Amino acid sequence: MPDLEVAFDAAGLVPCVMQDWRTGEVLTLAYMNAEALRKTQETGEIHFFSRSRNELWHKGATSGNVQKVKALRLDCDRDAVVALVEPAGPACHTGARTCFHNGELTPKAPYEVLPALQRTIAERAASRPDGSWTAKLLADPRLAGEKVEEEAEEVVRAVREESDERVANEAADVLYHLSVLLNTRGLTLADAEQILDERSR
């Protein structure tokens, strides 16, 4: 990783917001000193400085839930860092996926919806509960593919003949069934998003 010219504060620290690389969800806020930043860049895994313990902290060293760094970004004043990571497990010491789980929004913010859906699909793939439509689709990729075709036709017809609300509903059905179909191949919508990014360069 390239060296970053960070403007540390008087205590030698800089705040670091850790975000999920694939979803953009905020996972935690912690602090880095120069050594933590250097270790992060050298190892490719997040290191923080614990203000309460006054020591360097390798995120996930004890739990195994390391956070592999995909990119580090600085704000315009160079006094705050965003770390985009691939989490190996929950980011919070409580076992929650994110430290920001108190006061969860209902409904979710728009960018949270598809990642939450894909986590639910992954859970169904692991547990295969009886009576679950998602589990049934996961067990039958051909059926899942047929549903994607059916729902795609319905959204096209809705655009041609129906209200905006119906278009949005049918589009939601496409996204759900496409997410399930992708899961049968070990893929997610983020894999398709990466291709779109590569095509736009």
Automatic annotation (TrEMBL):
Record-level Gene Ontology MF annotations: phosphoribosyl-AMP cyclohydrolase activity; phosphoribosyl-ATP diphosphatase activity
Catalytic function, reaction form: 1-(5-phospho-beta-D-ribosyl)-ATP + H2O = 1-(5-phospho-beta-D-ribosyl)-5'-AMP + diphosphate + H(+); 1-(5-phospho-beta-D-ribosyl)-5'-AMP + H2O = 1-(5-phospho-beta-D-ribosyl)-5-[(5-phospho-beta-D-ribosylamino)methylideneamino]imidazole-4-carboxamide
Alphabetized, the UniProt keywords read:
Amino-acid biosynthesis, ATP-binding, Cytoplasm, Histidine biosynthesis, Hydrolase, Multifunctional enzyme, Nucleotide-binding
Q: Which domain of life is it from?
A: Bacteria
**Pfam families named in the record:** PRA-CH, PRA-PH
* Residues covered by the Phosphoribosyl-AMP cyclohydrolase domain: 29-101
Keyword Cytoplasm part of the UniProt annotation? yes
Location of region: Phosphoribosyl-AMP cyclohydrolase: 1-113
List where in the cell it is found.
Cytoplasm
> What family, per the record?
In the N-terminal section; belongs to the PRA-CH family.
Q: What is this protein called?
A: Histidine biosynthesis bifunctional protein HisIE
The scientific name of the source species is Conexibacter stalactiti
Query: Coding gene?
Result: hisIE
